[in-house]
Every structure is written in C-alpha cells, then in structure tokens.
Amino acid sequence: MSKILISNVEIVTDGPAYEKKFIGIDGNKISYIGKEKPKGYEDACQIDGAGKLAAAGMVNAHTHIAMCLLRSYADDMALMDWLQNKVWPAEAGLQKGDCYVGTQLGILEMLKSGTTAYADMYFFMDETAQASSEAGIRACLSRGLMGDKYDKEDERMKENIQLYKDWNGKDDGLITVMLGPHAPYTCGTEYLKMLVDAAGDLGCELHMHLAETEQEVKDCVKNFGMTPIKYADSLGILDRGCLIAHGVWVSEEEMDIMAAKKARVAHNPQSNLKLASGIAPVEKMLAKGITVGLGTDGATSNNNLDMLEETRLAAMLHKGVTYDPLCIPAATAWDMATYQGARCLGYDNLGKIEEGWLADIVLYNMDKPYWHPRHDRMSQLVYAANANDADTVIINGKVVMEKGEVKALDTEKIYFEADKISKRLTGK
C-alpha cells in the first residue's frame, strides 16, 4: 500500500491553537498526526503543506450531478412549474453518454472546490458510476425512481437493483448504492411498498425527497391523510434507513420520528431559497440529535456545486431566521459539511482528520488576502475562504488533484462536450 506524508501543514480544529504538523497516510487511512516527523515514511509521497490548511473533504449529501448540463437553463421559477415545464421535458432528451459527460463536469467542479464525496439521484447511473470510478471520487448513487403501481418488471427499479449489484462496495468502497424513490408525488403507494421490499432484500437504504415544499405537504395530507414524513414512515421507508433530501416542512412530532428512526437529512439551503421552498428547522433537528448534512441539490436549482458556499449559507441563514447569533456556529456548519454529511452517506469513519479514519483530505491555500490576519482558522474557512482555494485533494489515500489540477479529467474536452449536449437538450 502506498504512503503519503504531508509536512508543515496546519489542521483546522474547533479550538484557537494551531501548530504546523505532519499527517501520515498509509493505504486509505490516516496513520499519523503529530509535531514530530514520523519514521517509516522515507519512501512516501512527500507533500509540502507550508502555507496550507488541512481539512476533511466536504460531502455533498444531495445532488443530481448530471443536471450540470442544464445549468442556467431554467431559473426564477416555482418548483413544480420548473420541473414540469422545463426540467422534465429537457431531461426526456437525454441520450446514452450524456450523463457520463454531465457527471464528469460535476465531479470536476466538486473536486476543484474541495468536495470529496457526494450522494446522487438521477438517470443513466451506470455512467455516473463509471465517471466517478475513473475520477477517484467517493459516491453514493441511486437511480431516480418514479411509478404509480406495483410492478416487479419496472425497468427503472430493475436498473437501480442492477446498479447495486454491479457497483455497491466497488473501488475499495468508494462507490455505494441506495434505492432512489423520487418523492411521494411521483411514486404511488404500492410502488413505494415494492421498493421497501426490494431494499430489504438487498440490505440497502433509500434516498428520497421528502417535505420539500408546503404544497407537497398539503397534497400528501389530502391524498394519504398524513404528512410526507409520516407517510414514508407508515410504509417502512424510515425503518430501512433513509437519507431525506430537504426535510423543510417538518413538525416537532415528525422530527421526533426522524430522530427515533435515525433518518438523516440533506439540508440544501441555497436550492431551497432559490426555489422559494422554505427554510428547514435545522437548529431543531440538530438539537434532537438528527444527523444533518449539507447538499447543493442539482446545478439547475442552485446553480453551482460549491459546498463551501453552502456551508457559509447554512451558518448565516439560520442565525437570521432565529435571531440568534449563536445558532449554527462555524464549527457546527463545518461538521455538517463533513462528518455529518459522511454519516448521511453511511460512513462513521469519514469527515474528520483523525488517526485511523479514511484519508479524504483537502489542502487549502492560505496565501490570499482574506486569510490574513489569521485569528481563527475555522472561522476563516467557513466565513471567508473561497472554493478556489482548494489546492490539493486526497481521496481514500490517493492524490486526485494537485495544485488545482485534477489528474484524471480532461477539462477542455469536458467543457466542449457538455456545451454541445446542453445545446441539443435545450435548443439554446
């Protein structure tokens, strides 16, 4: 197994004290952290961390990565108008190979901004898995599923099950798979029951949009006599293990259910604001012990995959709506972007720089005006840093980006092909 030794680097922590340290990586795990140069790393890949801040890689807990192809195509619209009249018609034109390029574009953007893992729900997921594998990024994938009846021959469900069989645990565990029921308003009750059974047979979890808008809640109560969270719970979705995308319109009672069933939430503050969906009660979720990660949603409703921007917004937004400057401090927002995001994807040894944990590490270049003076590195990372400060990215113990250059991706080719596909899909 290969080794890496990072020297003279500062490590972001919750406390004010910072010292230059060494970080040793052996295989895919962090093997040493300390002030003294360790023995046994003489032949390791040497990285000079002088002027850099080491932090755990960020986790994008909910996105639709290939939607990068529709970036800026449909803006300033309500959710259902946006979906029904713009997004879904454009997506109907997706062809084989399109999502591979869209995924490459999204991965390029995420790696260059310090994101090392993501959870995705979309179409042509074999292409997303292949692109993720080639780039060396950590990915939790699900095929977006829609249906209104019990049908074991449903092609979309069969695709998701095959995705699980082909890719779950592949690439030394970098790629995992969930089932992806889209939402209560696109999946019928019998269809959801079938997916719950399939998840039980496979031993996998589910990734689902729930309680994203007030109208969704009203419609769910009208159609099923209960709110989306209670509806999902009544069908056994939360019992299988569920990553809830959004969770904006949830009550105290529902949050108690979510906490008891250990449901995790991917909070997407920027997308929720742009689509006027509302603001999730994140501070209450955290107080109840619910795992809350951060996500960008797709680049059609954000319009980027900048997790550092998402982290800053999460810290500031909830202060504003609660009138409490102590609500979601920088360290909590960072924890949501890293460790809690990793837990959303099913990891319990990822998202922190600690010995024995998986080595997903980003080095940020602090040679910028807004990094001076350096009173508090955590505060500067969350409130001042720019995603372009990401200099070096290590995932699972391998360097995938060095000095801002992503090793496995041809940037110019991706830009060219993505622009060409987008024009075909949108006519623009």
Describe, in plain words, how this protein is organized in 3D:
With 428 residues, the protein is of the alpha/beta class. It has 17 helices and 18 strands. The strands form three sheets. Strands 1, 2, 3, 4, 5, 15, 16, 17 and 18 form a nine-stranded mixed β-sheet that branches. Strands 6, 7, 8, 9 and 10 form a five-stranded parallel β-sheet that branches. A hairpin with a 2-residue loop joins strand 17 (398-402) and strand 18 (405-406). Helix 2 (98-112) runs parallel beside helix 3 and helix 14 (330-337) packs across helix 16. The chain is globular. The model has no long low-confidence stretch (mean pLDDT 96).
What layout of secondary structure does this protein have?
Blueprint: E1 3-11, E2 21-26, E3 29-34, E4 45-48, E5 52-56, E6 58-63, H1 79-91, H2 98-112, E7 115-122, H3 125-135, E8 138-145, H4 155-167, H5 170-173, E9 175-177, E10 180-181, H6 189-202, E11 206-210, H7 214-224, H8 228-234, H9 237-240, E12 242-246, H10 252-260, E13 264-267, H11 269-274, H12 282-287, E14 292-294, H13 307-322, H14 330-337, H15 339-344, E15 361-365, H16 377-383, E16 390-395, E17 398-402, E18 405-406, H17 411-426
Parallel strand pairs: 1-4, 1-5, 6-7, 7-8, 8-9, 8-10, 11-12, 12-13, 13-14
Antiparallel strand pairs: 1-2, 2-3, 5-15, 15-16, 16-17, 17-18
